[in-house]
User: Fold these one by one.
Assistant:
Number 1:
Amino acid sequence: MSPGTNVVIALAISSIVIVVISFRNKLVYRQRRELHGCEVPPSLPQLDPVFGLDLILSRFTSLKADRRNVSLLEQFRRHGNTFQSITFGRTTFFTIEPRNLQSVLSTDFLSWGVEPMRLFAFEPFIGKGIMCSDGAFWEHSRALIKPTFARTQIADLHLDDFGVHVERLIDLIPKDGSTFDLQPLFARLALDSSTEFLFGESVQTLAPDLTPSSAESFLEAYDYGQSCVGRRIQLPKFNFLTTDSRFWKSCQTAHEFVDQQIQKALLVTSKQKQDVDGRSRYILAQELLRQTHNLLDIRHQLLNIFLPAHEAIGVAMTNIFFNLARHPRIYTKLRNEILVADLKARTLTFERLKSLKYLQFVINETFRLNPTIGTNTRMALKDTILPTGGGPSGHGTSPILVRKGDSVVFGFYGLHRMPNVFGDDVDVFRPERWEKLRPAHWSYLPFGGGFRVCPGQQLALTEIGYCLVRMVQAFERVENRDPTMEFVEHYKITTESKNGAKVAMVPSHL
Ligand code: HEM
C-alpha cells in the first residue's frame, strides 16, 4: 500500500473511533441524566453553539463597557435563576439558586475547584497558594492561616494600628467644602492597613511626607497586574489580548516590593515587636513562620492573601460613601446613632460595633447592592449534579447533570437582588429593610460561603465599622459631587466604583 493510502486508512479509523466515543459518551450522559431525573436548564441563544465565540465576544464587550454584573443580572431576569451557555466549547451554568450555591460551596465541595481556572491566571502574579489551589495544597494553605484568623481577638488587636491610618485619612480630607474623590484615599487606607497586618510594616501611603516612592510604584504595578489577572480569568484562551509586557513588568515590580517587605518582617520576631511597642500585635508573616520554615511557601501564601486583603475594605468603604453621599437622610440617621452611643475610638471592638444596629444595616445594604465580589466561578473536577434549576423555564426544580470540566458561575450581584428574598425595591439603597430581613441561608453571601468562606471576614467588618464610625464622628455631612448618580461598575477581581466617590465633606465643628 502506498503511504497515501495508509494515511487515508488511519484518518478513517481515527474518525470512526472519535464518532464511536462521542456517541458512547452521549449515551452514558443520557442514561445518567435519566437515572437521576436531571433536566437541562434553558440555554442562552448563541450564534456559535459549538465554541461559543459570540458569547465570549459579548462577555468581553460588557467587561470593556463596565457592565459585567449588570448584563449578567439582565440575563438572570430574562432567562431565569439558572441557565447555561457554551464558552470555549464547554458548558457554563449560571445560577443564583441558593440550593445550588450550598451544594457547590459546601455539601458537594469536593466535586468543585478553582485551580484549573485560576492557577494559570494568578501564578505569574502571586504564585501557588490559598487563592488558586484545590485539594491537599489548598487544605495545607488554609491550615497555615487558620490559627491566626481563628483567634477572635485578632481584629480588635489590629485596631490599634488601624486607628492610626484612619486618623491620617481623616486629616487628608479637605475641610473647605471642595470636591474630592474618597476612592484613592480608601485604597491607600486598605493598603497601609493590610501591609501592616501581613508584613508587620505599613507602606504608609497616607502618612504625610513619608510615602516611599517604591510604595507608589508598587501600588501602580499592583493595580495594573490585578486588572490583567481579572482579564486572564475571563478570557483564558486569549491571553495575547489580555497580557502585555507591562503585565510582566508589573509582576516583577510587585514581587520585588513584597519580597523586600517579607525580608524585613522575617528579621523581626514577634517577641521583639511586642517589646518595642509594649503591646501585642498580629503580623501574619511572623505567625506563618511559627507554622512552617518553608520561606517560599510563606511568600506565596502571603502574596495570595495580599490579593484579597489589600483592597477589599477600600472598595467596600468607597461603596458605602458612594451610597451615603446620595442619601443625606441615611447619613444623618447613622450619625445620630453614633453620636448617641458616645463612642471613644479605643473602646471600639468587633462586639461593640456589632451592637450598632443602623451601622450594621448600612454595611449590609452596601454589600447587598454593591458586593465587592460580584461573581464567583467553580469548575467541576468530576461529573456531578447541581440539585436544582433544570427544566426549560429557568425556574425549574429538576437536578442538572454536570460533566467534569464544566463550570458554574454564581452571580452574587444577582443573588442579592432576588425580590422574593429582599423585597420588590431590590435596586434601592434602603438600610431599613434589614430591620426585619433575615435572608435564608445561601441567599446573602458577600463573603462567600462554605469551606472557602472568607477567613478575613471578621477583620474586614471590624475595620469597616471602625472607619465608618470615625468618619461619621468627624464629619457632619457628606455631599455628593458626582453628576452621575448611578453606580458604574469597574471589574478587576473585585468590583469597584468606576467613578469613585466624588464628594465634599463638612467637618463636625462647623
Ligand atoms: C470587604 C472585605 C472582604 C470581602 C467582601 C471579601 C470577600 C471574599 C469572598 C467572597 C471570598 C470567597 C472567594 C471564593 O469562594 O473563591 C473570599 C475569600 C478569601 N478572602 Fe476575603 N474578603 C474581604 C476581605 C478579606 C481580608 C481583609 C482578608 C485577609 C486579611 C481576606 C482573605 C481572604 C482569603 C485568603 C480568601 C480565600 C479563602 C479560600 O479560598 O480558602 N479577605 N473573600
Number 2:
Amino acid sequence: MSFNKYHKKVKENDTVILYLGYDNMHAIKIKRGSVFQTKYGALRHSDVIGTTYGNRVQCPKGYLYILYPTPELWTSNLPHRTQILYSTDISVVSYQLDLKPGSVVVESGTGSASLSHSIIRSILPNGHLYTFEFHKERAQKAEEELKDHGLSDYVTVTHKDVCKFGFDLEDVADAVFLDLPVPWDALPSAKKALKKLGGRICSFSPCIEQVQKTCACLAELGFEEISTMECLVRNYDVRTINLPNPEFSKENSKSLPQQKSTKSEQEDMDSDSPSESAEKSLQCGKSGGKKITICNSKDKGQTAEVLDTPEWDYIGKKTAANFSFKSGVSFGKMPGHTGYLTFATLYPL
Ligand SMILES: C[S@@+](CC[C@H](N)C(=O)[O-])C[C@H]1O[C@@H](n2cnc3c(N)ncnc32)[C@H](O)[C@@H]1O
C-alpha cells in the first residue's frame, strides 16, 4: 500500500476508505477472511480484493464505494490518538509555509500524524520531513503507520521532548511547524533548524494567550512578517425560499430582487430541511440573463422579460400564491474554532 504511488485494484494489506456517505466513511486494512460491519450489513474483505478503486461494492442492505486513500481522506478517518489538524487548517499551513517538492520540513508534535501525511505529499519526491513527538507510543505508532503507508523514505520520526532538548538540527529546514502547548520553548531550536538562507515558521495554538507569547518570542528571535490567522469554513445550507408571486411585467420585474420574504420563507429557513411541499414545487425554470421561461402548468412556455436585474439563475415554480426557488443560505453563527495559526519569516542574516 502506498499513499505515494497509486495502484488500480485493491490488494490484501491495502488501507482503503469505505465511503457510505460524506459523513460516514471508514479507513480499514484489507485482510482476507476478515469482516467489517457497516450500516448496510457485513462487508467481507475478500469481496473487496481485486475490486477497482472507485467502484461500488454490494453489501446485504445497500452498497458502498471503495476509495483510494489520500491525505485528506486519511485525515477524516484516521484513528485519533490526539487532537489533529484538519484539512482546512492544513491547506493554509501548506500554502503559507510554501511547501513544495524538495522542501525540508521540521514538525512537532507528530500527534496522530494527520498533518504529517499532507506535508509528505507536498514535499515528494525529494523533500524530507523530520517529525518529533515526546510521547513514546505515539511516536512508535506514527512511525509504523507512515511505514505501512509506504512513506518511510520521506520521513524521520524521533521520540524526543523538543522543548527540553531541542531538534538538534542546524541549517536544514525550509519550514518549521509547531503544534505544542508551549511553542515558545522550542522556538530558539526551531530557528537554528531553519536554513541560514531563511525560511518560514508556523505555530498552531488554540488559545490567544499562547499566540501572544509566541509572537513576542518570535519578534525577540528576529522573525519578521509575524501574522496570526484563524481559518473557518463558512457553510451554506440549500433551502427552498418562498416569495410573494412576482408579476413578470416590465414595471414589476424591476423590484423583483428586493421582494420581502414571506412567513413561509421564514418557516422554511427555520426548519431543518426544505419542506416536502416546497420540494414538490420544484420545476425546471431557468434564466441565463434577462429572459425567463416559465414552466408551471398555467403559464407554461411563456417567456417573461426581466429588465434591469442582475444576472440571476433560479430553479423554481410560480404558483398562484407564491414563487419558490432554491437558494444557498449561510448560518448566522460560525462554529468550528480549532486554533490560531501564527506564521513568521526568518530572513537570511
Ligand atoms: C495536538 S497533537 C499534534 C497533532 C498533529 N499536528 C496532527 O495533525 O496529528 C500535539 C502533540 O505534541 C506532543 N508534544 C507536546 N509537547 C511536546 C514536546 N515538548 N516535544 C515533543 N512533542 C510534544 C504531544 O504528545 C501531542 O502528541
Number 3:
Amino acid sequence: MAGIVPFLLHLIFPVRCPLCGRAGSCGCVECIKEVLSPNFSLCIKCLGPYPCSEHSSSFPHYWGARHEGMARKLVHLLKYENNGALGVSMGMALASYVTGMSADALVPIPLHIGSPRLFNQSRKIAQGLSLKFDIPMRDCLAWNVEVAPRASKGSTRSELPENSFKVTGSLGGIKTAIICDDVCTTGATIQKAASSLAKIGIEVVGSISFTVGKGPKL
Ligand SMILES: [Zn+2]
Ligand SMILES: [Zn+2]
C-alpha cells in the first residue's frame, strides 16, 4: 500500500527527478542547486579569473559547475535523453548563483547544422535563466559553418572562422546581450557568437554556461 501513491503518480506523470526521484518532476530546481555552487566569473578569452590583466577587451563568463560528476550527467540527460523540461530547471537553478547580470536579451548558442536533436539544449537553459532574470530570450543565431558538435579531445575551437555565425532573427531595440551555452569548453564558440552580434551593433556584456570544461587556468 505504501508504494501505491508514487506508483499512481508515476502513471499520471511518467517522469522522475534524476536527483531525488520525485515522481512528476523532470528535475527539481532545488535539487539541481545542490549540484552547483557560486563561482568567480572567468575571462572568456583565457578562462582565467575576470577581470583579466591580459585581455582588457574580454567579458565575464558565469558558470555553475565544472563539467564533471553529476553536473556533467545532467547535461547529458538534457542532450541525449530529450529531457527538455530539465533544461529549464537547470537554467533556473543556475540563475540563483549568479548576481549582477543585466542585458537587453539572452541569446542561446544554436544547434549545429544537421543536428539530430529534437530541441536546442542551450535554448532550454536560456529559457530558465530568462524566467529568473526577467531578461527576454532572443534565439537569433544560426551556424554558418559545419563543425563537429564538440571539439574533440586535445583540440580546440580556436580555429573556428570569424563568420561562424549569422544573425537570423529580429533584434530591434536590443543593444546588449548575454550569450548562453550548455557547456563552455574553450570559450571559442562564445567569442565567435559575440563577434557576429558586434557586427550588427550589439554589445555582448557577458556569457553563461551550466558547466565549464577544465580550461587552462581552472
Ligand atoms: Zn528532485
Ligand atoms: Zn584573459
Number 4:
Amino acid sequence: MMNKAVVNFIRDDLSPFYPEQELNSILFLMFEEVLGYSKTDIIIKADTKLKKKEKFRFEQILGRLKRMEPIQYVLGSTQFYGIKILTDVRTLIPRPETEELVSWILEEFNADGLRVLDIGTGSGCIAVAIKKCYPNCQVIGIDISEHALAVAQKNADIHKISINFIQGNILNATEIHKIKELDIIVSNPPYIELKEKNMMAKNILDFEPEEALFVENNSALIFYEAIGEFAFKNLRSGGKVFFETSALYNNAVVDLLKKMGFISVESRKDINGKPRMVRAVFK
Ligand SMILES: C[S@@+](CC[C@H](N)C(=O)[O-])C[C@H]1O[C@@H](n2cnc3c(N)ncnc32)[C@H](O)[C@@H]1O
C-alpha cells in the first residue's frame, strides 16, 4: 500500500467518528508517529510504499482511535508549551488553557532561582515547562496519585531536569506542612462537580482519570479554599498563587482569594474569551 492510499484509507475509516478538522490533525500526528513524517513529507512521499511493520502500526492506532481513545493516550505523548510530555491513562491530558496559565506565570517571573510548587501536578506538564524555562528555580510537584507521579517523574527524566515530586493530599495540609518559603504556587486542581458529568464528552469520561477531574457536588471550591489557606501560610511576602478554574467558578475563586486577604487578585480569560485563570499576591 502506498502512502497516498493510506491517507485515503485512514480518512474513510475515521470519518464516521471524527469531524473533518480533527481528522486532519490526527492524520498528521499518525504519520509523524509511524513514519517520522512532516506534513510536507506526506505530500512529497505520496508514492512511497509502506512496510508491513508500518502498516501494522497504523492499524493498531486506528483500532484504538475508533474506540474513541484520545490520540494523546494512543500515541503516548503530546506537545505542551512546545515540549514533549508523555501521557497515559494515569494522568489528565494537558490542555491548551493550562499552557496559557504557564504563559502568565512566566510573564510574571522576575528572576531565576525562585521556589515553585505545583499542586496536583498530574503528568508534571506545568512543573516541567517552568523548570525548562528557568533551570535554576527549585520546582516541587505534589499529587495524591502515585501513578500520576510516576509519569511526572518520567517527564522530568526525558527532559533531563530535576523536580522534587512528592506524594501528598492537599486537603490534608499536615502531610505537606514542610513545604514552606515559596515564591510561586500554581494549581490546576479538580473542579468539575459530579452533577456536570452528563454534559461531558464520552471520551473524557471513558478514558481520563476521575480523581483528576471531579469533586463532590457543591464543593467546586474545595481545592481553592485549601490551596488558598496553604498559600497564605507558605508563600513569601510578594509571592503569588496562580489557578486554573472553570469558567463557572472563576468569579467565586476571585472573591474567595480577596476575602482571604490576598491582594492584586486578577482574573484572565483564555483564548476563547472564557475566564479560566486567577492570580493573587500575598503581601
Ligand atoms: C486537573 S488535574 C491537573 C493535572 C496537571 N497539573 C495538568 O494541569 O494537566 C488535577 C490533579 O490533581 C490531583 N489531585 C486530586 N486530588 C488531590 C489531592 N487531594 N491532593 C493532591 N493532588 C490531588 C489529581 O491526581 C490530578 O493529577
